[in-house]
Specification:
alpha/beta; eight-stranded mixed sheet; 8 helices
Length: about 230
């Protein structure tokens, strides 16, 4: 595994401490799959948790993946052991909707929030989410909602809420959430040749009302292309 400690320390320093009583929401996203977004988001959350007072939440926006929970569970030496499950919503809100909703015996729809669980990681103030895919019924699907309620609720209990977003090439989830993040960080392979896709994603994030905070160059043995460097704030 590539050690991203120095890059994540620089990013933490660049973002600075939370501006007030509420924590900061940071979304990581790439234009294309395979850029290493999940690894970068996980390492940022791990490092931030070591310096955190109120904790760090790692939220996987691609709820059907479960990659973050699986990766952390598979490497307790690096991250610590995963604890028991608890509710992942402090007030019953959710950043997704399950459609069509399941019905209770009284005819009322089940709420969305119970589909998402949170697990404490190790002895640090570090939490990772896992969506209960096993609770879905045949014919149900999950949609990411353009609503700030969940993120605003969660930031009251954490120093950082770290969002691992699916690649923009296969999902618009990151754009739906971008306006509610304090910082949207692009993950780019510095040796990549497609400079147009990251530039287009940066523009799309800003057009959606999101705050573009910069880039992380993953798997980068050399300087990134000049066209990519020019996009930095």
């Amino acid at each position: 595994m590539v050690d991203l400690a120095s890059e994540m320390a620089e990013l933490l320093h660049a973002l600075g401490p939370s501006p007030g009583a509420e924590g900061r929401v940071v979304q990581f996203v790439a234009a294309s799959a395979g850029e290493g977004v999940s690894t970068v988001a996980r390492e940022f959350a791990r490092l931030a948790s070591e310096r955190s007072r109120r904790g760090v939440w790692l939220v996987e926006l691609d709820v059907m993946s479960g990659e973050q929970y699986a990766a952390i569970a598979a490497d307790p030496e690096r991250y610590g052991f995963i604890g028991t499950a608890s509710h992942a919503s402090p007030d019953g809100t959710a950043f997704f909707s399950v459609e069509p909703p399941a019905r209770r015996p009284d005819g009322l729809a089940f709420q969305n929030a119970p589909y998402l669980l949170a697990y404490a990681v190790g002895g640090r103030r570090f939490w990772v989410t896992r969506f209960r895919r096993e609770a879905l019924r045949i014919g149900q699907s999950v949609q990411i909602t353009a609503d700030p309620a969940y993120w605003n609720a969660l930031r009251k209990f954490a120093d950082y809420v770290v969002i691992d977003a699916p690649a923009a090439s296969r999902s618009r989830a990151a754009l739906a959430v971008a306006p509610f993040a304090d910082a949207n960080v692009l993950v780019v392979s510095a040796d990549g040749r497609d400079t147009g896709a990251p530039a287009a994603l940066k523009n799309a994030i800003e057009q959606a009302g999101g705050e573009f905070a910069g880039m992380v160059f993953n798997r980068a043995p050399a300087e990134p292309p000049s066209a990519i460097r020019a996009m930095l704030p």
